[in-house]
Please model this.
Amino acid sequence: MTFQPVTALLLSLLLVSLNSHFALAGKRRVHITDDLDDVFDDEEDDAWREWGKKPAPSFPPSDFSKLDPAQIQDEMINRHAGPVIGFVKLRLGPRRTPDMVAEFSMKWTQVLRTGAVGVRFMGVDLNTIMFNLESIKDLEELKEFVLDQSEAYEIKMGDQFFRRPGDPPLDEVTERLHGEKGKADNADPEEIDRNVKTEL
Model:
């Protein structure tokens, strides 16, 4: 019994000494001299120096007669603000249902929105999906994503077509399929067209 008060006294003295040690450590000051001539600061890179500066305005060329149509379209795209509408033509051959096309549209929209690309896909017919791209700045990412999909064949925006390297234009593939199917079935081309162009 006589050891309990002694033990309690020793423990309380230990706690007080530890507490005072930590309190003094927080009040210590570190002195930094103002003489920093020999210090070399190379942490800033070019991106840091340019941060916050407004980009220099780029003006369109004053004479469009010297440009070819592709360069004029590039200039128009660079100056474009607002949504862009285009179409994705799906691969010909496999039979699709309207539900399958709607599923492609929904899946592509969700995946690209997860990647912060503002786009919405909607099925038009069994071989065409329309997209509404909120900003032309995301066009490259959209093209890369869509052309990676096995169901997609080409993208059409205005007069421009984008497809995988080496793929022939869709019109040639369609004519070849019509020729093969017409020879095999002796079917009327208008009947084939009606089947391909079924709207959703």
User: Anything to note?
Assistant: The chain has seven helices and five strands. Residues 43 and 110 are 40 Å apart (CA to CA).
